[in-house]
C-alpha cells in the first residue's frame, strides 16, 4: 500500500519554528526521491525542498534557503521539514511527495505520490 502521512503542522508567531514529519510506506521510500511542497490559498502548489534518501543530498527553493532543512530517518521511513524563522508568507498547506523523476526537482508534475497535507499558519 502506498501511503504518505504528514503531521506537525500548527499555528506559530512570526520568527518561530515548527518541524513537520512525513511517514512514508516502504515502497515509496525506496523510490529514493522525496520532497516537501506547499500551497497557499489562491496560489499554485510550489516546491520547498527535496531529499535523496540514499545519498542525503538536499535541494531548496530560494525562498526557504537558510531557514528550512529537509532531513530523513531511513530506519523510520520518515522525512522531516524543520522550519525556522517562520514568516507570515510561509502560511500554507504543506505536502510531502514521493517517486520523483529526479531528486533535485521542485516541480509538482515530477512527483507521482502525495500525502493529504498539514496546515501551517504563521501570524505576524
Summarize this, please?
With 124 residues, this protein is mainly beta.
Proportion of residues in helical segments: under 10%
Shape: globular
- Measured on Cα atoms, how large is the radius of gyration? 13 Å
Q: Unreliable stretches, pLDDT < 50, 5 or more residues?
A: none
Describe the biggest sheet?
7 strands, mixed
Strand content: over 45%
Secondary-structure element sequence? EEEHEEEEEEEE
Distance between the termini: 41 Å
**Secondary structure tally: strands:** 11
Number of alpha- plus pi-helical segments? 1
Descriptive account of the structure:
The structure is a single chain. By secondary structure, the protein is mostly beta strands. 3% of the residues lie in helices and 51% in strands. The protein contains 1 helix and 11 strands, in the order βββαββββββββ. The protein is globular and about 40 Å long.
Give a topology summary:
Layout lengths: L3 E4 L2 E4 L4 E7 L1 H4 L3 E7 L6 E7 L5 E3 L7 E6 L4 E6 L8 E9 L10 E4 L3 E6 L1
Parallel strand pairs: 2-11
Antiparallel strand pairs: 1-3, 3-8, 4-5, 4-9, 5-6, 7-8, 9-10, 9-11
Q: Key terms for this structure?
A:
single chain, 124 residues, mainly beta, seven-stranded mixed β-sheet, four-stranded antiparallel β-sheet, 3% helix
Amino acid at each position: 500500500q502506498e501511503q504518505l502521512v504528514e503531521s506537525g503542522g500548527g499555528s506559530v508567531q512570526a520568527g518561530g519554528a515548527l518541524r513537520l514529519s512525513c511517514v512514508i510506506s516502504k515502497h515509496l521510500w525506496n523510490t529514493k526521491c522525496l520532497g516537501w511542497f506547499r500551497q497557499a490559498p489562491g496560489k499554485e502548489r510550489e516546491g520547498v525542498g527535496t531529499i535523496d534518501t540514499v545519498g542525503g543530498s538536499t535541494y531548496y527553493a530560494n525562498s526557504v534557503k537558510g531557514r528550512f532543512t529537509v532531513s530523513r530517518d531511513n530506519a523510520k521511513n520518515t522525512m522531516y521539514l524543520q522550519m525556522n524563522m517562520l514568516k507570515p508568507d510561509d502560511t500554507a498547506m504543506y505536502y510531502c511527495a514521493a517517486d520523483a523523476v529526479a531528486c533535485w526537482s521542485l516541480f509538482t508534475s515530477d512527483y507521482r505520490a502525495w500525502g493529504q497535507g498539514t496546515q501551517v499558519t504563521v501570524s505576524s
